[in-house]
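Whiteboard transcription, Tuesday session. T.W. wrote the structure tokens on the left side:
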């Protein structure tokens, strides 16, 4: 969650000072995510550039990513860390729980983070102050819980944060509408149905290198290349190893049922042509 929020913050700051073409936006987004992961995540958890390109399908090369990362880093003066709305949300949540007698499970931080993620996907909230956006999410959730104690604490937090009522009401209305749309049945949210990916042949080959490869199986010897004695010995071994109702060797019809390449040998004809 922290990586996602920081990536959005880096993207917003870069777009605020640079004009980019729509075709370059996917590459810029991947670079912002990669830069955020380098700041937040451990070295062992940072995905490789090849994996990020393959998963995101951004149609750019490794050199494109590195070149764009250099441009973003120079424009932002290598200042990637920032105080985001998630920072204020964690701070406000801790303050409310410290001054409240309610159980910690009542005010769910996971739910607030999910709501913040939904708001970060809207362009309009890139103009909102992080402190105001976090406070709007907190007060709306407190109103849903209908707890007078939590509501009074939230008002005191607003007073100490010096957030005026005008900005609060304006952004609260937008946040409320965003969350209502997000919770509506018309919203295209992931469900429990199995997702179907429609990809091209080239993408499928990149995702699954062995998808179109033919497995190398050992060659099955044909009975036509075996001499008469080996054929009789193999038939005797098959008949002796099977618990069948008859002790006689399998017929040509039975053998041809399991082996498509089986060709019965005409022993009687060979005796006529080559009599002993």
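and on the right, the sequence the group agreed on:
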């Amino acid at each position: 969650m922290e990586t996602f929020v920081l990536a959005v913050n880096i993207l917003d700051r870069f777009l605020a000072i640079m004009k980019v073409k729509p075709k370059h936006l996917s590459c810029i987004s991947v670079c912002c995510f990669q830069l955020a992961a380098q700041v937040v995540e451990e070295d062992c958890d940072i995905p490789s550039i090849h994996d990020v390109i393959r998963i995101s399908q951004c149609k750019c090369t490794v050199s494109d990513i590195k070149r764009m990362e250099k441009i973003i880093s120079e424009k932002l003066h290598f200042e990637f860390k920032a105080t985001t709305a998630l920072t204020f949300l964690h701070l406000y949540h801790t303050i409310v729980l410290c001054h409240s007698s309610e159980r910690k499970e009542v005010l769910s931080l996971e739910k607030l983070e999910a709501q913040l993620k939904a708001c970060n996907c809207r362009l309009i909230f890139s103009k909102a102050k992080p402190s105001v956006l976090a406070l709007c999410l907190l007060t709306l959730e407190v109103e849903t819980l209908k707890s007078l104690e939590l509501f009074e604490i939230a008002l005191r937090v607003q007073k100490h944060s010096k957030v005026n009522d005008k900005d609060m009401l304006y952004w609260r209305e937008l946040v409320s509408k965003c969350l209502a749309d997000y919770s509506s049945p018309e919203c295209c949210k992931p469900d429990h149905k199995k997702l179907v990916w429609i990809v091209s042949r080239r993408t499928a080959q990149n995702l699954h290198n062995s998808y179109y490869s033919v497995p190398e199986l050992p060659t099955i010897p044909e009975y036509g290349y075996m001499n008469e004695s080996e054929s009789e010995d193999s038939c005797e071994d098959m008949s002796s190893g099977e618990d069948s109702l008859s002790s006689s060797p399998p017929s040509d019809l039975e053998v041809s049922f399991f082996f498509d390449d089986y060709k019965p040998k005409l022993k009687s004809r060979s005796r006529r042509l080559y009599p002993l």
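Someone added at the bottom: Residues 85-183 form one domain.
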